[in-house]
């Protein structure tokens, strides 16, 4: 026999199903609008995070960590894995934007009879809101306050990474696989910067008033320095002051005084056989306080280096410092002496010409179209200083060399060489050497157009 037992209904079972209770459309709309505003704030957060994080150079992050600024440690942790950081920002930003569009469509569906019209209005309405308040305004703020904003958002961004971890891990893996298949790079940030980009930054800094003109010129000389060879900075053989090893100490002192140099090369027979260098302090000490009268000039010679004219100046400087030498001899491929390089010559490549008392400027600007030049001045320096584009050949690097190359013969005072709207008037010639010239930009001259950035390290 079956017995049926019935129990009285409990309080939870009394009344209608909660899902069937009527809900106010206005309350739903208000809640939806509030949710959209919150999501819009999150969109602004993620958008500004992308700009702030990836605009911040690594050296500034290291500096903030060293200063123990709030949030710097978390910031560095995020920047250590830029790929994961970018995926976190993109996942969060796309989630909130898609959620905004969906919620806005639902709200409009309550008031618009056509579902297609509701989708259309929601799409364009949310797009306008996101562009203005979720992208443009926050990114502009992040650009203006990169460091402070990056430190402020580092903590919340790290929290977002934990909250969205399953999605982030999934998409991080998938994007790396896609990059591997398509041959793309998995790195998001790269420390590689071309020389042209750095030059552009330097010029922009000068225009913005951050750098003075002389600071810009010095920085640009540093870039040229690494590509400069000994031949371009040396004192040519014709201008070298030297003394024979057979000269007396008194004669060597007189040679130093007359040449206004503290060091002189000492040669045996000719300049093609330079034995070394003698310093005036050794000469004076031996001449005035020497204990023996048998000391000769050859006994005071210090060793020096003989370097090829094609030797890189950067390497040459390191070698001179290592060997504690202030003067080296430059030779050509046949072993004959081409000139000499001093520590002052190398320094001038960075800081500019160091003039002696009464010495003329190598480049003297007369007006916007005219300048006087020493024949020995380097063509690169003329181009940079006067904003011209005079070509440099394999067999010459100076203005005098350019004039001889264009003329195809020896030139005399008063002759004029023309090139691409530029006239170079030869003002002073000594024997066969061009000592001074005047450069004039004619009415036919057109300023050179800036070349596109080229990777010099390629």
Features:
458 residues; 12 strands; 5-stranded antiparallel β-sheet; disordered C terminus; 51% helix; disordered N terminus; elongated; alpha+beta; 4-stranded mixed β-sheet; 14% strand
Topology:
Layout: H1 25-55, H2 58-66, H3 72-79, H4 82-111, H5 115-144, H6 146-163, H7 165-182, H8 195-207, H9 213-225, H10 230-233, E1 235-236, E2 243-244, H11 249-259, E3 263-268, E4 270-279, H12 280-289, E5 306-308, H13 313-323, E6 327-331, E7 337-342, H14 343-351, E8 363-365, E9 370-374, H15 379-386, H16 399-407, E10 416-419, E11 422-430, E12 433-441
Parallel strand pairs: 2-3, 5-6
Antiparallel strand pairs: 1-7, 3-4, 6-7, 8-9, 9-12, 10-11, 11-12
Structure characterization notes:
The chain has 458 residues and is an alpha+beta fold. The chain contains 16 helices and twelve strands. Strands 8-9-12-11-10 form a five-stranded antiparallel β-sheet, covered by helices on one side. The protein is elongated. 23% of the residues are buried. The N terminus and C terminus are likely disordered.
